[in-house]
Amino acid sequence: TSKPTPTSASQCTPSSNPEFEAIRKATPTNTLNNPKITNSWIRTRGPMWVQNQSLEAPKQNCAVCGNAQMAITVEKTKFTLGHLYNMLRTRMGMIDPSIDNLSGAYFGSLEDNDEHLIGKLLIDCPKMQNGVHLSIEDQMQDFDFSLIVSFDSLDEEKAPEGYVLTNAHAVEKSKEEQKRASVKRALEDAERAKAAKKARVVHELV
To answer: Fewest Cβ atoms closer than 10 Å to its Cβ: which of 30, 124, 132, 170?
Structure first.
C-alpha cells in the first residue's frame, strides 16, 4: 500500500519515511534579506507507470537524424575560420568538429591549425569560394553533415554574429514556394488583363 503524502514536517521526515525527501526552499518576501523558509516535499521512490512509446522516424530535413544539408552565409570581411569552428560548437552542438573542404583542402579539428590560419578570413582560406561544400564531422558523437558556404555583406543588426545559418532543404523549399507564387501571380495578372480587354471590346461594340 502507498504511504500518504505528508502535510507537515511533523507527520513525516526523511528518517521516518524514506519515500519522501525534504528540501529547504526560500520563498521570496517583501524583504530581500529576510526570505521566508518553508519545507517542500518531493517524492523520491514508489511505483511509477511508464507508458510504451515508439521512437519517431528520422526526419530527412534534419542534419542530426536525417541527411539534410545546412547552408551558411557569412560576412566576407569579418568571418574567420575560427568563427566557423565556434559556430559548429555553439549552434550545432559539436564537441570536436572536423572540417574537410571537398574542393581539396582538409582543415581537420581546431587543434590541427595554427593561430595564423584560425584567425584568417574564411574567404581567404585555401580552396574557399562561394558555394563551396564542406564536410563537417564530429567523431566523438558520430555526427556528420554537409555545409554549403556563401560569402556576402550582411546587415549587422540582422546578423550580429556575422553569419546566417539555415537548412538548405528549407531554403530550396522556400525558393520553390516563391517560384510557384510568382507563377500564380503572373497567371492571375494575365487573367485580369484578358478580362479587362474583353470588357473594352464589349464597351466599344455597345
So the answer is: 30
Type of residue at 35: P
Instruction: Check whether 84 has a pLDDT greater than 50.
Output: yes
- For residue 12, being part of any structural domain is answered with yes
| Backbone Cα Rg of the chain | 30
> Does one domain contain both 86 and 167?
yes
The answer on 77 and 37 residing in a single domain is no
Phi then psi dihedrals of residue 2, to 5 deg: -80, 150
Task: Quote the cell numbers at residue 168.
Answer: 538548405
**What is the chain's mean pLDDT, rounded?**
76
Residue 26 belongs to what domain range?
Answer: 1-44
Distance in Å from the first CA to the final CA of the chain: 94
3-state secondary structure of 82: helix
- 62/145 Cα distance (integer angstroms): 10
In whole angstroms, give the CA distance from residue 176 to residue 182.
Answer: 10
What is the side-by-side order of every strand in the sheet holding 163-167?
Answer: 105-108, 98-101, 132-138, 143-152, 70-75, 163-167
Q: How many structural domains compose the chain?
A: 2
